Structures are given as structure tokens and as C-alpha cells.
Amino acid sequence: MGEFELISHYFAAAACAQAGDGVALGIGDDCALLEVPAGEQLAVSTDTLVAGVHFPHNPDPYLLAQRALAVSVSDLAAMGAAPIGFTLALTLETANTDWLQAFANGLDQMARACSVSLIGGDTTRGPLSLTLTVFGRTPKGLALTRSGAQVGDLLCVGGYLGDAAGALPLVLGQRSDDSTAAKALLQHYWSPQPQLALGQALRGKATAALDISDGLLADCGHIAAASQVCMQIEVDKVPLSASLQACADDQAARQCALSGGDDYVLAFTLPAVELSPLQTQGWPVHVIGRVVAGQGVEVLDGYGNKIIQAVGGYQHFGRDGG
Ligand code: ADP
Ligand code: MG
Question: Could you identify the atom of ligand 1 that is nearest to the CA of residue 123?
């Protein structure tokens, strides 16, 4: 199959490549054309996923496509942006029709779940890798950045942490487990749900936000550095799913939640007055700590003792302090 036939059959013809909101011209020309209404800004983010680095070799193509798109769209969620479209630069070793069809189906499923249109891309031959660029829009001045956290704000997350890290031994084939709990962890790893609605609900309320891709400690470190404050986390408040607790002992589950990546749950800082209205409206807002003067990230145990102190990166884990 030639490059053009491949593009038109699997990508241009996909449901998610048909005209969407904000897309004036999609696949087929030299550029796509996007509409950004007056008073809004364009939010843009790119992610590359490489086989053997960001996902295992020989992945299920349906799950790979779902996950790649979810990971990219999650960056829009973290800015409080509404998705418009995405491009897909795909490098393939061979053009296998079953593989491509499953990949296109996975992409389509996640694209529809996120209301985002495939607007273009590039197709090349080589070791399997994907680069997705997502485009979204947000009212001028209301994007959620990493730099606005204020001393006194609450530190919150939008859901359970550690599931994706808990799934990693299963993903890598180091362990096998057919339990319902293990399946739930795998589902979270392969099909994370970008918190788009939450991100938009936090516009004008959260002072800083990001999506947790590298792990809670590392990512809170990014907010701390950008905002020049210290993020204090109470370890007992970090929400853990029943699935993770069923698959890992307490210590391991907590380690997954603090240091494991790939969850794509939002972490954000919130003035205390904003908390109860959001919770009353049913948004998943879990308070796990607060913003204090200083720098870096501190983790406190149930007695208020510092069990981790990380300035400029997560460095130390132990029960005996500092
Ligand atoms: P050009 O040579 O002008 O860069 P291409 O031949 O690479 O154009 O692509 C033709 C059209 O198909 C363009 O609109 C491009 O955005 C789109 N396209 C190419 N590869 C993909 C892909 N993997 N997914 C979606 N659209 C693609
Ligand atoms: Mg090209």
C-alpha cells in the first residue's frame, strides 16, 4: 500500500477526521486551517512516543493509539483548554492493514471521547514512533499555568494516583494477574481519561495546574519551581484506588502514587474559598496538602513529620525524616 492510499483509507476517512468545531479545513491540503474565536487563545502541545521508550515493543495498536491521544489531550486539560484538533506524525516499520485498522479505531474512539478532530499529519517509514500535536482554545488570560500558586492555597488532585505505575509490571510482562483489580489498573494505563471538563471548570479558580505525567512529586516540583513556593503533601491524604490497594501493599501503593508517572490526573492549587463550591457541584477535588513559603516539595506523614524533602527534584524517601 502506498503512502497516499494509507493516509486516505485509515486517516482521512476516519470519523474523527471529518469536520469538527473550529476546523475550517482538515486533512488533504498543505495545511489545516483552524478558527480561534476573538477573545480566545490557541493552546498547542506536542508529545512524541517511541517504541521501547514510552511504550513496550509490539503494543496492541488500538490501545497504543488511545493512549497516545489521551496523553496529548491531557496537556490541553491541564491548561483549561477546550480541544479543537490534532495532527499525527506516524513512523511505521511496515504498513500492516490489520494493525493500521486497529490503530485507526483506537484513535477514533479516544478522539470522539475527547471531541477532538484529526486535522493532518505525516506518514514515514522507520522504527515505530508517534508524534501528536494538539490544538485547543481557551479564553484570553484564563489558561491554567504552573506559575500562579500562592502561599496559603490548597494543593489538590483530580482523582486516584498510582494506578498507571501499579500497572507497569503487568504492561512490561514482569508479572501476570487476571484479577478485576489488575484489569482496572491496565485500563488506566492504556486508556487514561484526560480531565478536560475539570480543567475548564477550574478556569479562573485554580491558581496553577498541570497534569501528572512524571509522578506527583516531580510534577509538584514543577509547580513549586514555576511559582517559587513550597508544595507540602500529606501522604495519608493522597487518594489511592481500591484496585491499586488490592494489587500492591501499602508501602508499594504509596510509592506508586508519589513517584509513579503516567496517571494524567490533574494537580492544581486552589484558594480555600473555591473548594466547597467545586465539591458541591460534584467535581472530583481531593485536597492533599497546601502551598507554603519556601521551595521544592515536602511530604508529611500522619503526625506532621517530614518524610521526604525534595528541592530541585525528588531525592529521598524514608520514615526517619529529612
Ligand atoms: P505534504 O507533502 O504537503 O507534507 P503529505 O503528503 O505528507 O503532505 O500529506 C498529505 C495530507 O495528508 C496532508 O494534509 C497531511 O496533513 C495528511 N496526513 C499525512 N499523514 C497523516 C496521518 N498519519 N494522519 C493524518 N493525516 C495525515
Ligand atoms: Mg508531509
Answer: 20
